[in-house]
Sequence to fold (434 residues):
Amino acid sequence: MKNIQNKWIRGAIPALLLHCSIGTVYCWSIFSQEIANHIGFSKGAVEWAFSFAIFFLGISAAFLGKLVEKNIHKSSLIASITFALGMTGTGFFIWYGGIHQKSVISLAGIYVCYGFIMGIGLGTGYLSPVKTLMLWFQDRKGLATGLAVAGFGAAKAIASPVMQEMLENMGPTGIYKMFYILAGVYFVMMLVGHFMLAKPSHWVEPQNKSKDEGMIAAIKSQPVSSYIGIWLMFYINITCGLAIISQEKMIIKCVGLGAYAGLISTISALFNAGGRLGFSAWADKMKDRNTIYKLIFSLSIVSTFIVLFTQGISKGAGNSILIAFVMILIFIVNAGYGGGFSNIPTLLSDHYGMGNISAIHGITLSAWAFAGLTGNQMASYIVRKTGSFIEVHGVQANPTGYQHVLLVTAILYAVAICLCFFFIKPIKKSNETE
Fold:
């Protein structure tokens, strides 16, 4: 009974506290326009804060992975402090920008606080509980990591209505006061998670005997093409997911469901969280976890091509079948996007063992960093440069441009599934039980 309690008290619950806090970074679209209006800049200029946050999430995970490997208490404390400090600083520079309209200091301060400082908290907070969970739930590693990473995905669904309510009821100053309040709430949640988090007492970290051992040696224990394939596959999945998710709201308006955009966004966030938990739990029953990525990419390709061939975005309004195709695509992409995240640490542990998993996982999250800079921007560029904007249900939209985004993502998904089949080699038996 004590061991069961420890799995939850020392592993799962603190992981959820950490991930449900930092996962609110995906609530950015709820308040980005309000920030832009308050400080006097365009929404496009402000949007870079989110891109920087995702970039520094991946970069900090890559550089601080070894710290997480050595001391999860130090890394989770760093995450708690930097995440809360970044939110507080963001609130301060929004307040400053409200007084000094179009101040470069305000915009740069938001970039530094929301992008760089919070990004460090995101990267270390994301990594810190993952290895601990896999050690506590060695028989169901996918389920355990999926549960925590699902908290990262579900954070948007949980926090979005709360943030919306705060913005609507706190008046013109609500935007920066919201950041102060949430910084305090999330700091307490993450600090509690920090104190609760602990590895099993029976686990002893392997001691490297020479410079040739460690993370690099672990990666070289398998064909290097396997790691390159995993990194590229992960990068493509995030890039395509962000490209489609970033245009989700306008796609919904194009098919005539603009009045239900908030509800559909919440449902898609739940699919994102459900994919993190469901796909990873399913992978526990598979001989090779790479199979789950083949499934994710196959579903994404099929659903994307159905919408492309039926022209569901441009012709979907009033046609329930075409609308259903578009909604299925959005939900599958969200589920696959989440499932790609939750299966990466367990796929890596199957290939390279548990000894250096935090460091290897951290380096692999650099794919998330670069996808954070390319996914949204790629979709925006395609929409700006192809097709034309027309009035659709009272709003200016570019249905042809959104279809072209789907065409590009379908090609990228096809590349990703080829990587799964031809680059990522079957696992050597010596690492399956490591």
Summary: Residues 104-136 form the longest helix (33 residues). DSSP finds 18 helices and two strands in the chain.
